[in-house]
Amino acid sequence: MLYQFFHYLSELNVSGAGMFRYVSFRSALAFILSLLIATIIGKKIIHKLQKHQIGEIIRDLDLEGQMSKRGTPTMGGIIIIISILIPCLLLGKLDNVYMILLMVSTVWLGCIGFLDDYIKVFKKDKEGLHGRFKIVGQVGLGLIVGLTLYLSDDVMMRENTVTVVKTEEVVQYAASCEKSTKTTIPVVKDNNLDYADLFTFMGDKAQTCGWILFVLVTIFIVTAVSNGANLTDGLDGLATGTSAIIGTTLGVLAYLSSHVEYASYLNIMYIPYSEEMVIFICAFVGATIGFLWYNSYPAQVFMGDTGSLTLGGVIAVFAVIIHKELLIPILCGIFLVENLSVMIQVYYFKYTKKKYGEGRRIFRMAPLHHHFQKLGLPEAKIVSRFWIVGILLAMLTIVTLKMR
Question: HSE-up of 366 (CA within 13 Å, CB side)?
Fold first, then answer.
Protein backbone atom coordinates (compact mmCIF):
# COMPACT_ATOMS: atom_id res chain seq x y z
CA MET A 1 0.00 0.00 0.00
CA LEU A 2 2.74 2.45 0.93
CA TYR A 3 4.67 1.44 -2.18
CA GLN A 4 1.87 2.68 -4.45
CA PHE A 5 1.44 5.83 -2.36
CA PHE A 6 5.12 6.77 -2.48
CA HIS A 7 5.29 5.85 -6.16
CA TYR A 8 2.59 8.45 -6.73
CA LEU A 9 4.51 10.98 -4.63
CA SER A 10 7.65 10.19 -6.62
CA GLU A 11 5.86 11.05 -9.85
CA LEU A 12 5.01 14.40 -8.26
CA ASN A 13 8.75 14.88 -7.58
CA VAL A 14 8.32 14.84 -3.80
CA SER A 15 11.79 14.70 -2.27
CA GLY A 16 12.74 11.33 -0.77
CA ALA A 17 9.69 9.48 -2.11
CA GLY A 18 11.84 7.67 -4.66
CA MET A 19 13.53 5.69 -1.89
CA PHE A 20 10.58 3.28 -1.93
CA ARG A 21 11.64 2.12 -5.38
CA TYR A 22 14.65 0.39 -3.85
CA VAL A 23 14.17 -3.13 -2.55
CA SER A 24 17.06 -2.72 -0.11
CA PHE A 25 15.32 0.26 1.54
CA ARG A 26 11.94 -1.46 1.80
CA SER A 27 13.57 -4.68 3.04
CA ALA A 28 15.37 -2.84 5.82
CA LEU A 29 12.10 -1.13 6.79
CA ALA A 30 10.28 -4.49 6.73
CA PHE A 31 12.85 -6.01 9.07
CA ILE A 32 12.75 -3.11 11.52
CA LEU A 33 8.96 -2.82 11.43
CA SER A 34 8.37 -6.54 11.97
CA LEU A 35 10.89 -6.58 14.82
CA LEU A 36 9.16 -3.63 16.49
CA ILE A 37 5.69 -5.09 15.99
CA ALA A 38 6.73 -8.46 17.45
CA THR A 39 8.34 -6.92 20.52
CA ILE A 40 5.65 -4.29 21.14
CA ILE A 41 2.48 -6.29 20.51
CA GLY A 42 4.11 -9.45 21.81
CA LYS A 43 3.92 -8.27 25.40
CA LYS A 44 0.25 -7.30 25.00
CA ILE A 45 -0.70 -10.60 23.36
CA ILE A 46 1.14 -12.57 26.06
CA HIS A 47 -0.82 -10.63 28.68
CA LYS A 48 -4.09 -11.45 26.86
CA LEU A 49 -3.18 -15.14 26.65
CA GLN A 50 -2.38 -15.21 30.36
CA LYS A 51 -5.61 -13.38 31.19
CA HIS A 52 -7.69 -15.96 29.32
CA GLN A 53 -5.56 -18.81 30.73
CA ILE A 54 -4.47 -20.01 27.30
CA GLY A 55 -1.55 -22.06 28.61
CA GLU A 56 0.47 -24.98 27.33
CA ILE A 57 -0.68 -28.46 28.35
CA ILE A 58 2.44 -30.32 29.42
CA ARG A 59 2.71 -34.09 29.53
CA ASP A 60 5.10 -35.46 32.14
CA LEU A 61 7.97 -36.95 30.12
CA ASP A 62 10.40 -36.92 33.05
CA LEU A 63 12.51 -34.14 31.54
CA GLU A 64 14.41 -31.64 33.65
CA GLY A 65 12.51 -28.35 34.08
CA GLN A 66 9.61 -29.61 31.98
CA MET A 67 6.81 -29.25 34.50
CA SER A 68 7.84 -25.66 35.31
CA LYS A 69 6.59 -24.77 31.82
CA ARG A 70 3.04 -25.84 32.59
CA GLY A 71 0.66 -22.95 32.05
CA THR A 72 3.08 -20.93 29.90
CA PRO A 73 0.97 -19.05 27.30
CA THR A 74 0.80 -20.79 23.93
CA MET A 75 -0.56 -19.85 20.47
CA GLY A 76 2.11 -17.12 20.38
CA GLY A 77 2.52 -17.85 16.68
CA ILE A 78 -0.15 -15.18 16.26
CA ILE A 79 2.59 -12.65 17.10
CA ILE A 80 4.79 -13.99 14.31
CA ILE A 81 2.00 -14.02 11.72
CA ILE A 82 0.87 -10.46 12.48
CA SER A 83 4.47 -9.24 12.45
CA ILE A 84 5.03 -10.77 9.00
CA LEU A 85 1.80 -9.69 7.33
CA ILE A 86 1.66 -6.02 8.35
CA PRO A 87 5.09 -5.03 6.91
CA CYS A 88 4.36 -7.00 3.73
CA LEU A 89 0.99 -5.30 3.26
CA LEU A 90 2.52 -1.88 3.84
CA LEU A 91 5.83 -2.21 1.99
CA GLY A 92 5.41 -4.92 -0.63
CA LYS A 93 4.06 -4.86 -4.17
CA LEU A 94 0.73 -6.54 -3.67
CA ASP A 95 0.40 -7.45 -7.35
CA ASN A 96 3.54 -9.59 -7.23
CA VAL A 97 2.62 -13.27 -7.57
CA TYR A 98 5.42 -14.40 -5.26
CA MET A 99 4.41 -12.00 -2.49
CA ILE A 100 0.79 -13.14 -2.83
CA LEU A 101 1.76 -16.82 -2.61
CA LEU A 102 3.88 -16.28 0.48
CA MET A 103 1.20 -14.27 2.26
CA VAL A 104 -1.46 -16.85 1.39
CA SER A 105 0.85 -19.58 2.71
CA THR A 106 1.34 -17.68 5.96
CA VAL A 107 -2.39 -17.28 6.55
CA TRP A 108 -3.25 -20.80 5.35
CA LEU A 109 -0.82 -22.62 7.64
CA GLY A 110 -1.49 -20.18 10.47
CA CYS A 111 -5.17 -21.17 10.34
CA ILE A 112 -4.34 -24.90 10.41
CA GLY A 113 -2.00 -24.41 13.36
CA PHE A 114 -4.53 -22.19 15.13
CA LEU A 115 -7.23 -24.86 14.82
CA ASP A 116 -4.85 -27.44 16.26
CA ASP A 117 -3.95 -25.21 19.22
CA TYR A 118 -7.60 -24.23 19.75
CA ILE A 119 -8.68 -27.87 20.05
CA LYS A 120 -5.82 -28.60 22.47
CA VAL A 121 -6.40 -25.60 24.70
CA PHE A 122 -10.15 -24.98 24.64
CA LYS A 123 -11.46 -28.47 23.89
CA LYS A 124 -8.90 -30.03 26.26
CA ASP A 125 -7.99 -32.60 23.61
CA LYS A 126 -4.22 -33.12 23.86
CA GLU A 127 -4.15 -34.71 20.39
CA GLY A 128 -5.37 -31.50 18.77
CA LEU A 129 -6.45 -31.43 15.15
CA HIS A 130 -6.45 -34.94 13.71
CA GLY A 131 -3.30 -35.73 11.74
CA ARG A 132 -5.13 -36.42 8.51
CA PHE A 133 -6.72 -32.98 8.53
CA LYS A 134 -3.30 -31.39 8.96
CA ILE A 135 -1.98 -33.41 6.04
CA VAL A 136 -4.95 -32.44 3.88
CA GLY A 137 -4.29 -28.78 4.66
CA GLN A 138 -0.57 -29.07 3.92
CA VAL A 139 -1.17 -31.02 0.73
CA GLY A 140 -3.78 -28.45 -0.31
CA LEU A 141 -1.30 -25.61 0.10
CA GLY A 142 1.38 -27.53 -1.79
CA LEU A 143 -1.11 -28.07 -4.61
CA ILE A 144 -2.03 -24.37 -4.71
CA VAL A 145 1.62 -23.29 -4.80
CA GLY A 146 2.66 -25.88 -7.37
CA LEU A 147 -0.24 -25.20 -9.73
CA THR A 148 0.14 -21.42 -9.42
CA LEU A 149 3.82 -21.63 -10.37
CA TYR A 150 2.84 -23.87 -13.28
CA LEU A 151 -0.13 -21.88 -14.58
CA SER A 152 0.75 -18.24 -13.84
CA ASP A 153 2.23 -16.26 -16.73
CA ASP A 154 4.04 -14.06 -14.19
CA VAL A 155 6.24 -16.95 -13.04
CA MET A 156 9.24 -16.95 -15.37
CA MET A 157 12.97 -17.53 -15.22
CA ARG A 158 16.06 -17.29 -17.40
CA GLU A 159 18.19 -20.37 -17.58
CA ASN A 160 21.88 -20.22 -16.76
CA THR A 161 24.40 -22.00 -19.01
CA VAL A 162 28.16 -22.30 -18.68
CA THR A 163 30.54 -21.77 -21.59
CA VAL A 164 34.33 -22.04 -21.50
CA VAL A 165 36.26 -19.04 -22.82
CA LYS A 166 40.03 -19.51 -22.81
CA THR A 167 39.90 -22.14 -20.05
CA GLU A 168 37.67 -19.84 -17.95
CA GLU A 169 34.04 -20.67 -17.21
CA VAL A 170 31.59 -17.91 -18.11
CA VAL A 171 27.94 -18.02 -17.00
CA GLN A 172 25.48 -16.79 -19.62
CA TYR A 173 21.71 -16.46 -19.58
CA ALA A 174 19.00 -17.04 -22.14
CA ALA A 175 17.94 -13.93 -24.05
CA SER A 176 14.32 -14.18 -22.91
CA CYS A 177 12.38 -15.45 -19.92
CA GLU A 178 10.46 -18.71 -20.04
CA LYS A 179 8.62 -21.19 -17.86
CA SER A 180 10.82 -24.08 -16.85
CA THR A 181 10.82 -27.25 -14.76
CA LYS A 182 14.47 -26.73 -13.87
CA THR A 183 15.72 -26.37 -10.32
CA THR A 184 19.07 -25.75 -8.67
CA ILE A 185 21.00 -28.77 -7.47
CA PRO A 186 24.22 -28.56 -5.44
CA VAL A 187 27.61 -30.16 -6.16
CA VAL A 188 26.82 -30.62 -9.86
CA LYS A 189 28.77 -28.90 -12.63
CA ASP A 190 25.84 -27.14 -14.31
CA ASN A 191 23.94 -26.63 -11.03
CA ASN A 192 20.61 -27.45 -12.72
CA LEU A 193 18.25 -30.39 -12.75
CA ASP A 194 15.30 -30.48 -15.14
CA TYR A 195 12.43 -32.59 -13.84
CA ALA A 196 11.36 -33.09 -17.44
CA ASP A 197 14.64 -34.87 -18.23
CA LEU A 198 13.47 -37.74 -16.04
CA PHE A 199 10.65 -38.37 -18.55
CA THR A 200 12.47 -38.21 -21.88
CA PHE A 201 10.94 -41.60 -22.70
CA MET A 202 7.53 -39.85 -22.75
CA GLY A 203 8.47 -37.84 -25.84
CA ASP A 204 6.32 -34.72 -26.29
CA LYS A 205 4.69 -35.26 -22.91
CA ALA A 206 7.99 -35.05 -21.00
CA GLN A 207 7.50 -31.39 -20.10
CA THR A 208 3.99 -31.99 -18.77
CA CYS A 209 5.21 -34.94 -16.71
CA GLY A 210 8.03 -32.73 -15.41
CA TRP A 211 5.49 -30.21 -14.12
CA ILE A 212 3.41 -32.96 -12.51
CA LEU A 213 6.52 -34.19 -10.70
CA PHE A 214 7.34 -30.61 -9.68
CA VAL A 215 3.89 -30.18 -8.12
CA LEU A 216 4.25 -33.50 -6.26
CA VAL A 217 7.70 -32.47 -5.00
CA THR A 218 6.22 -29.15 -3.82
CA ILE A 219 3.48 -30.96 -1.89
CA PHE A 220 6.01 -33.29 -0.28
CA ILE A 221 8.40 -30.50 0.71
CA VAL A 222 5.68 -28.26 2.18
CA THR A 223 4.36 -31.17 4.25
CA ALA A 224 7.78 -32.43 5.36
CA VAL A 225 9.30 -29.07 6.31
CA SER A 226 6.23 -27.78 8.16
CA ASN A 227 6.07 -31.01 10.16
CA GLY A 228 9.82 -30.83 10.76
CA ALA A 229 9.52 -27.33 12.21
CA ASN A 230 6.61 -28.53 14.32
CA LEU A 231 8.70 -31.35 15.81
CA THR A 232 11.65 -29.01 16.38
CA ASP A 233 9.48 -26.70 18.48
CA GLY A 234 10.15 -28.55 21.73
CA LEU A 235 12.71 -26.37 23.50
CA ASP A 236 12.67 -22.65 24.26
CA GLY A 237 13.83 -20.73 21.20
CA LEU A 238 14.91 -23.78 19.20
CA ALA A 239 12.47 -23.60 16.28
CA THR A 240 12.42 -19.78 16.35
CA GLY A 241 16.19 -19.33 16.14
CA THR A 242 16.63 -22.11 13.60
CA SER A 243 13.94 -20.59 11.37
CA ALA A 244 15.61 -17.16 11.57
CA ILE A 245 18.91 -18.67 10.38
CA ILE A 246 17.22 -20.52 7.50
CA GLY A 247 15.20 -17.44 6.56
CA THR A 248 18.31 -15.27 6.39
CA THR A 249 19.98 -17.77 4.04
CA LEU A 250 16.91 -17.94 1.79
CA GLY A 251 16.82 -14.13 1.72
CA VAL A 252 20.42 -14.05 0.45
CA LEU A 253 19.61 -16.62 -2.25
CA ALA A 254 16.46 -14.73 -3.30
CA TYR A 255 18.37 -11.45 -3.56
CA LEU A 256 21.12 -13.07 -5.65
CA SER A 257 18.54 -14.79 -7.87
CA SER A 258 16.89 -11.44 -8.67
CA HIS A 259 20.08 -9.92 -10.13
CA VAL A 260 21.73 -11.35 -13.24
CA GLU A 261 25.23 -10.31 -12.19
CA TYR A 262 24.97 -11.83 -8.70
CA ALA A 263 23.18 -14.96 -9.93
CA SER A 264 25.95 -15.60 -12.46
CA TYR A 265 28.55 -15.68 -9.69
CA LEU A 266 26.85 -18.67 -8.04
CA ASN A 267 25.77 -20.06 -11.43
CA ILE A 268 22.10 -20.12 -10.46
CA MET A 269 19.08 -19.20 -12.57
CA TYR A 270 17.88 -15.63 -12.81
CA ILE A 271 14.30 -15.14 -11.54
CA PRO A 272 12.77 -11.77 -12.49
CA TYR A 273 10.68 -9.96 -9.84
CA SER A 274 11.85 -12.30 -7.08
CA GLU A 275 13.36 -9.29 -5.31
CA GLU A 276 9.95 -8.69 -3.68
CA MET A 277 10.48 -11.92 -1.79
CA VAL A 278 13.42 -10.28 0.00
CA ILE A 279 10.95 -7.89 1.63
CA PHE A 280 8.85 -10.82 2.81
CA ILE A 281 11.80 -12.77 4.19
CA CYS A 282 13.14 -9.70 5.99
CA ALA A 283 9.75 -9.37 7.70
CA PHE A 284 9.92 -13.11 8.43
CA VAL A 285 13.37 -12.87 10.05
CA GLY A 286 12.41 -9.71 11.96
CA ALA A 287 9.28 -11.42 13.28
CA THR A 288 11.16 -14.52 14.44
CA ILE A 289 13.88 -12.49 16.16
CA GLY A 290 11.25 -10.27 17.79
CA PHE A 291 9.37 -13.36 18.99
CA LEU A 292 12.64 -14.82 20.27
CA TRP A 293 12.77 -11.90 22.71
CA TYR A 294 9.95 -13.63 24.60
CA ASN A 295 10.54 -17.22 23.49
CA SER A 296 14.20 -17.56 24.52
CA TYR A 297 14.98 -19.55 27.66
CA PRO A 298 13.09 -19.40 29.95
CA ALA A 299 10.21 -18.82 27.54
CA GLN A 300 7.43 -16.39 28.41
CA VAL A 301 5.35 -17.71 25.51
CA PHE A 302 5.28 -20.69 23.15
CA MET A 303 4.44 -20.35 19.46
CA GLY A 304 2.34 -23.52 19.39
CA ASP A 305 1.38 -25.13 16.10
CA THR A 306 0.08 -21.71 15.04
CA GLY A 307 3.69 -20.62 14.68
CA SER A 308 5.66 -23.79 14.00
CA LEU A 309 3.54 -25.03 11.08
CA THR A 310 3.61 -21.52 9.61
CA LEU A 311 7.38 -21.12 9.88
CA GLY A 312 8.14 -24.51 8.32
CA GLY A 313 5.58 -24.15 5.55
CA VAL A 314 6.68 -20.64 4.60
CA ILE A 315 10.32 -21.78 4.43
CA ALA A 316 9.32 -24.64 2.12
CA VAL A 317 7.20 -22.45 -0.17
CA PHE A 318 9.95 -19.82 -0.34
CA ALA A 319 12.57 -22.42 -1.32
CA VAL A 320 10.30 -23.85 -4.03
CA ILE A 321 9.59 -20.42 -5.54
CA ILE A 322 13.30 -19.60 -5.95
CA HIS A 323 13.97 -23.10 -7.34
CA LYS A 324 16.14 -24.12 -4.37
CA GLU A 325 13.94 -26.89 -2.99
CA LEU A 326 16.67 -29.51 -3.46
CA LEU A 327 18.88 -27.54 -1.05
CA ILE A 328 16.31 -28.12 1.72
CA PRO A 329 17.96 -31.32 3.08
CA ILE A 330 21.12 -29.31 3.78
CA LEU A 331 19.67 -25.94 4.74
CA CYS A 332 16.89 -27.43 6.88
CA GLY A 333 19.11 -30.20 8.23
CA ILE A 334 17.89 -29.57 11.79
CA PHE A 335 14.27 -30.09 10.74
CA LEU A 336 15.26 -33.15 8.70
CA VAL A 337 17.14 -34.82 11.55
CA GLU A 338 14.30 -34.13 13.99
CA ASN A 339 11.86 -35.73 11.54
CA LEU A 340 14.11 -38.73 10.93
CA SER A 341 14.74 -39.30 14.64
CA VAL A 342 11.00 -39.72 15.22
CA MET A 343 10.53 -41.97 12.19
CA ILE A 344 13.53 -44.16 13.09
CA GLN A 345 12.44 -44.40 16.73
CA VAL A 346 8.88 -45.45 15.85
CA TYR A 347 9.96 -47.93 13.16
CA TYR A 348 12.65 -49.54 15.32
CA PHE A 349 10.32 -49.81 18.32
CA LYS A 350 7.64 -51.55 16.25
CA TYR A 351 10.19 -53.80 14.52
CA THR A 352 11.82 -54.97 17.78
CA LYS A 353 8.47 -55.43 19.46
CA LYS A 354 7.36 -57.72 16.63
CA LYS A 355 10.65 -59.61 16.56
CA TYR A 356 11.55 -59.85 20.24
CA GLY A 357 8.18 -59.25 21.90
CA GLU A 358 9.52 -56.10 23.53
CA GLY A 359 9.96 -52.71 21.90
CA ARG A 360 13.46 -51.18 21.98
CA ARG A 361 14.63 -47.65 21.32
CA ILE A 362 17.63 -46.19 19.51
CA PHE A 363 17.31 -42.76 21.14
CA ARG A 364 16.49 -42.20 24.76
CA MET A 365 13.62 -40.06 23.52
CA ALA A 366 12.52 -38.56 20.22
CA PRO A 367 12.60 -35.97 18.70
CA LEU A 368 16.38 -35.72 18.92
CA HIS A 369 16.54 -32.65 21.18
CA HIS A 370 14.81 -34.63 23.94
CA HIS A 371 17.47 -37.34 23.59
CA PHE A 372 20.12 -34.80 24.59
CA GLN A 373 17.93 -33.66 27.48
CA LYS A 374 17.81 -37.26 28.69
CA LEU A 375 21.62 -37.30 28.54
CA GLY A 376 21.60 -34.47 31.07
CA LEU A 377 22.52 -31.49 28.87
CA PRO A 378 20.94 -28.17 29.96
CA GLU A 379 18.17 -26.91 27.68
CA ALA A 380 19.90 -23.62 26.86
CA LYS A 381 23.10 -25.45 25.84
CA ILE A 382 21.20 -27.82 23.52
CA VAL A 383 19.44 -24.89 21.83
CA SER A 384 22.69 -22.94 21.40
CA ARG A 385 24.46 -25.93 19.86
CA PHE A 386 21.58 -26.59 17.49
CA TRP A 387 21.78 -22.94 16.39
CA ILE A 388 25.52 -23.33 15.74
CA VAL A 389 24.85 -26.41 13.62
CA GLY A 390 22.12 -24.46 11.80
CA ILE A 391 24.57 -21.65 10.97
CA LEU A 392 27.12 -24.17 9.67
CA LEU A 393 24.45 -25.82 7.50
CA ALA A 394 23.43 -22.41 6.14
CA MET A 395 27.03 -21.67 5.16
CA LEU A 396 27.39 -25.14 3.64
CA THR A 397 24.23 -24.60 1.58
CA ILE A 398 25.74 -21.59 -0.18
CA VAL A 399 29.21 -23.14 -0.46
CA THR A 400 27.83 -26.27 -2.19
CA LEU A 401 26.70 -24.09 -5.09
CA LYS A 402 30.36 -23.32 -5.82
CA MET A 403 31.55 -26.89 -5.24
CA ARG A 404 31.25 -28.39 -8.69
Answer: 19
